[in-house]
Amino acid sequence: MLSRSVFLRALAGVPLLCASLPAQRQKPPKPPDLEILEIHAVRTDEGIEIDGKVRNTSARAWIQVQLLIDFVGTGRKPLSTRRGPIESTELASGEESEFRLRVPDNGKAIDIVINAEDVDKRDLSVRNAGPFRIE
User: Could you give the CA distance from residue 121 to residue 22 in angstroms, rounded to a whole number?
Assistant: First the structure.
């Protein structure tokens, strides 16, 4: 009877032990590939001008980074996406590059959100991706 009591008490602690194991094995989240450091989106007579600066926050270099600018309307409704390169063809780890895009104004967009991809069309994660208000 005593051994059964000891066994049941030991068994009661197993779920606690099992619950703590997955938490210990989890990897820390992967840092983003790029970070938007500065951005300005302004309406002009010619359309919308988007200027900014991006930094490579990953450990690898990125080749021919393309920014995907999502134009968002009221109610966060996506309206369109425009693509444009950053100035540097190759962006090494820790390096920064500027970008400039001029796009026609559809009149309905109020915000922009930034996404990115590399030369092989792989999605790159972006920190501080928006939304940013179009002034």
Answer: 33
Model pLDDT for residues 63-75, shown as the tens digit of each residue: 999 999 999 999 8
Angstrom CA distances, 75 to 47, 50, 63, 78, stand at 22, 22, 35, 9
pLDDT tens-digit map of 81-106: 999 999 999 999 999 999 999 999 88
Task: Measure the N-to-C terminal CA separation of the chain; round to a whole number of Å.
Answer: 78
Looking at residue 27, the DSSP 8-state letter turns out to be P
CA neighbours closer than 13 Å in the CB half-sphere of residue 109: 27
**Using CA atoms, how far apart are residues 117 and 98, in angstroms rounded to an integer?**
16
Is the bond leading into 32 cis (omega within 30 degrees of zero)?
no
Q: What's the pTM value of the predicted model, to 2 decimals?
A: 0.75
Query: In this structure, which topology does domain 34-133 adopt according to CATH?
Result: Immunoglobulin-like (2.60.40)
Task: Say whether 22 sits in a helix, a strand or coil.
Answer: helix
Q: Which of 132, 49, 118, 57 is nearest to 90 (CA)?
A: 118
pLDDT at 4: 59
Return d(Cα 58, Cα 91) in angstroms, integer: 10
